[in-house]
Design goal:
Elements (H helix, E strand, L loop, with lengths): L2 E8 L3 H17 L4 E5 L4 H7 L5 H8 L3 E6 L14 H11 L4 E7 L12 H4 L3 E7 L11 E4 L5 E4 L6 H17 L3 E6 L5 H14 L6 E6 H10 L6 E4 L1 H14 L7 E5 L5 E5 L16 H13 L4 H16 L2 E2 L9 E2 L2 H12 L1
Parallel strand pairs: 1-2, 1-3, 3-12, 5-10, 8-9, 8-10, 13-14
Antiparallel strand pairs: 4-5, 4-11, 6-7, 11-12
Helix pairs in contact: 1-10, 1-12, 6-7, 8-9, 10-11, 11-12
The structure holds 3-isopropylmalic acid (IPM) and magnesium ion.
3-isopropylmalic acid binds next to α4.
Length: about 350
């Protein structure tokens, strides 16, 4: 049966990089993988055509799809829109409407790019961390929220950081399962010295951990985790954390690798339906110039094959093809280094296709 893949390029460089990933999907398709690709607008592009960042037709499409490939959303021209019409709302809407509660954000240092990190090579060589970020709860979605006026006429903004036991239970199971397939170490990051919500989080993670005796579980306060990530990141295997902490720590972890243009991500629901996207944003400053790095998006296709389409061998093939392209010294400007050859977005996509063929 054919698998339905929704293609949502979004804004900025999203359009260029997704086009390269689509070439890879089409290549797999011609090789016998039965895929049906349908494109739809989201983010600023959704606002432009339908007046809202998550158009009804796009939502209907993603709900009927097996998997979603997303580029990036956002751009300066949308920044003055009311909050509910901004591109980011399209992304948050996709996450919540599809119940994509588990966000997997790997931070892997490609040996060919070891010099790209701002940290010393010995600190980052061989780095391979998986951050599991809770994605549909916590302060991003907690109610009540808003900006209100106090009695004295001063305004105050407020958000609510809330997690139920079941939300913590399901995200920690995802993290433990991943740890089982990797180095069997899980670090849960919280702020249990200050927040009640973290106290409960820790308790639930401990309880789930009793079912995963083979996994070495530790807990760390988020401020310390930020410090440890830049001090000695290789102490981590899998990390699990709340929505907002995960947003922050995953950016830091991505930058350890020095090449945010290389990192894919997956956002999964309870049945492994997923949305796959590069970790980086829409980079309006370089949009349309044909210089953006499409590899994170191409590697997101590999994650899709691994986590949603049950095609691990094809996923390995893509990962290996990207590795060989790097071995050949081909680089987009963001990862350019001495002695390498600088190429553009489409050439990079083509180079991966050559290796796949
Ligand atoms: C991310 C982004 C989003 C987030 C924004 C664009 C809403 O920073 O995916 O990390 O905060 O989750
Ligand atoms: Mg972020």
């Amino acid at each position: 049966m054919s698998k339905k893949i929704a293609i949502l390029p979004g804004d900025g460089i999203g359009i260029e990089i997704v086009a390269e990933a689509v070439k890879v999907l089409e290549h797999l398709s011609s090789g016998g993988l039965d895929l049906e690709l349908t494109e739809a607008p989201v983010g600023g592009a959704g606002y432009d055509v339908a007046g809202k960042p998550l158009p009804d037709e796009t939502l209907a499409l993603v709900k009927a799809s097996d998997s979603i490939l997303l580029g990036a959303v956002g751009g300066p021209q949308y920044e003055t829109l009311p909050r509910e019409l901004r591109p980011e709302r399209g992304l948050l809407g996709l996450r919540s409407e599809l119940g994509l509660f588990a966000n997997l954000r790997p931070a892997i240092l490609y040996p060919q790019l070891a010099d790209a990190s701002s940290l010393k090579p010995e600190v980052v060589a061989g780095l391979d961390i998986m951050i599991v970020r809770e994605l549909t709860g916590g302060i991003y979605f907690g109610e009540p929220r808003g900006i209100r006026e106090k009695d004295n006429g001063e305004r105050e903004g407020y958000n609510t950081l809330v997690y139920s036991e079941s939300e913590v239970d399901r995200i920690s199971r995802v993290a433990f399962d991943i740890a089982m397939k990797r180095g069997k170490k899980l670090c849960s990051v919280d702020k249990a010295n200050v927040l009640e919500v973290s106290e409960l989080w820790r308790e639930v993670v401990e309880k789930v951990g009793e079912e995963y005796k083979d996994v070495e579980l530790s807990h760390m306060y988020v401020d310390n985790a930020a410090m440890q990530l830049v001090k000695w990141p290789k102490q981590f295997d899998v990390m699990v954390t709340k929505n907002m902490f995960g947003d922050i720590l995953s950016d830091a972890a991505a930058m350890l690798t020095g090449s945010i243009g290389m990192l894919p991500s997956a956002s999964l629901d309870a049945n492994s339906k997923g949305m796959y996207e590069p970790i980086h944003g829409s980079a309006p400053d370089i949009a349309g110039k044909g210089v953006a790095n499409p590899l994170a998006t191409i590697l997101s296709v590999a994650m899709m094959l691994r986590y949603s389409l049950d095609e691990p061998a094809l996923a390995d093939k893509i990962d290996a093809a990207v590795g060989r392209v790097l071995d050949k010294g081909l680089r987009t400007p963001d990862i350019m280094a001495e002695g390498c050859k600088e190429i553009g977005t489409a050439e990079m996509g083509d180079a991966v296709l050559v290796e796949l063929a």
